[in-house]
Each structure stands twice: as C-alpha cells, then as structure tokens.
Design brief:
Layout (H helix, E strand, L loop, with lengths): L15 H11 L2 H19 L11 E7 L5 E7 L5 E5 L2 H22 L6
Antiparallel strand pairs: 1-2, 2-3
C-alpha cells in the first residue's frame, strides 16, 4: 500500500478534497454565491484606488530678528499671508522685553551715585 503524503484523510478515510466537494453539494447555491460575492468584493477592495487625501495647507517658515536682536519664527499661510503660529508667541516675547527693561533699569540704579550728601 502506497501513502500519498500530500493528501489528508479524515477519520472515515475520505480525502479532504472529496469532503470539500461533498460539502459544496450539500450547501445551498445561495450560500455558495454569497461566499463568491464576498471573495469578489474583497478582491475589489484590494485593487481599488484609495480616496484622495484632503488638501494640505501650504505654509512657509519665516525667521525674524526683533529690535533687541532676538530671533523668532513665524509659520505663514501662503494663500492668505496670515501668521498661523509664532515661536515664541507674541505674549512671551513682550514679557521678555519687559523683564529686560526692568533689568536695565535696575542695573542703571545700582550705578548711580548719590551726590546729594
């Protein structure tokens, strides 16, 4: 007796291929069509083109130097010219300018000599 290693046998001695054929004969045609339809849909999804990406905003980066020689960056919308974002933000820049001014005033006050005595 020769054993074919590529075929499998069920416990009753029926090959897997024969069992599948028998199952197809037992299944109603509508169920078989449903499986085929699902397979066609799956194949169509694989080959279908992905939807187009939404339009990405076009931005440019502007590097600026203020009067106190501090660098800041602005992200600008190329369509409108509006500043989308600034790094550091304007509020932080103003706070830094106020702190620098206070430090200058304090340094000047230390160097003044009291000549009234």
């Amino acid at each position: 007796m020769r054993i074919d290693p590529t075929s499998s046998f069920s416990p009753a001695g029926v090959s897997a291929v024969e069992e599948a054929k028998a199952q197809r004969r037992r299944d109603p045609p509508s169920q078989q069509e449903g499986v085929r339809h699902e397979a066609r849909e799956a194949e169509a999804r694989k080959t279908a083109q992905p939807p187009p990406l939404p339009e990405q905003p076009q931005h440019s980066l502007s590097i600026r130097i203020d009067n106190d020689r501090r660098i800041y960056y602005q992200v600008i919308d190329e369509k409108t010219g509006d500043v989308v974002r600034q790094i550091p933000p304007e509020e932080i820049r103003r706070a830094g300018q106020h702190i620098a001014e206070l430090m200058r005033q304090q340094a000047e006050d230390k160097h003044q000599v009291d000549v009234s005595s």
